[in-house]
Amino acid sequence: MEKQNLSPEELAILAELLGRIDPKKPLGTELFNMIARVSVSVGFETLALRQGDEGVEIFLTQRRTNEAYAGEYHSPGTILRPGEEMEDAFKRLEEEEFKSKLISWKFIGFNNYLTEVRGHSFAVLYLCELDDSSDNWFPVDDLPQPMVNHHEKIIIPKAVAAFKKFNTK
Fold first, then answer.
1. What is the sign, positive or negative, of the torsion defined by CA atoms of 127, 106, 108, 84?
2. Does residue 1 sit within a domain?
3. How confident is the model at residue 169 (pLDDT cuts 50, 70, 90)?
4. Which of 78, 102, 118, 121 could disulfide-pair with 113, CB 3.0 to 4.6 Å?
5. Which domain holds residue 142?
6. Phi and psi at residue 34, in whole multiples of 5°?
7. Domain count, the chain
8. Is 73 left (phi over 0), alpha (psi -120 to 50) or beta?
9. CA-based torsion, 27, 29, 31, 36: positive or negative
10. Could you tell me if residue 107 is inside a domain?
């Protein structure tokens, strides 16, 4: 493994600056992305599905232009913050991402993204029931584009399989 190119003095300054961060507050996109490159983030992937008239539908939003995956559709999720309980993350998702009440959630698996755009992320996947009547629902067989690739290719298929399993009992 290659050594860091920082001098002991630079490492001391970096440690001092990082020590000033309040881990309970958002880091901001730029700082989060830099820290994510040198750590493993714990992600919450929440997939809200429902049975629609034409088949299974999923709740998706489009990412803002100043974020990773700018302008791409995705299933809302978040990163677990230091000192945060899982219920806090679900509440934040309700308020900031879904803007609707999460009625229930079921654990459906894990996903380990070694080369995610922002770095290494280990995600916990939840199938969610959402109280929402917005226009953010899309047929899983006709997803809008552009889509976050690992959502389209990995986690949405996992969620659809779990949804069908839970709804055929």
1. positive
2. no
3. low
4. 121
5. 8-166
6. -70, -45
7. 1
8. beta
9. positive
10. yes
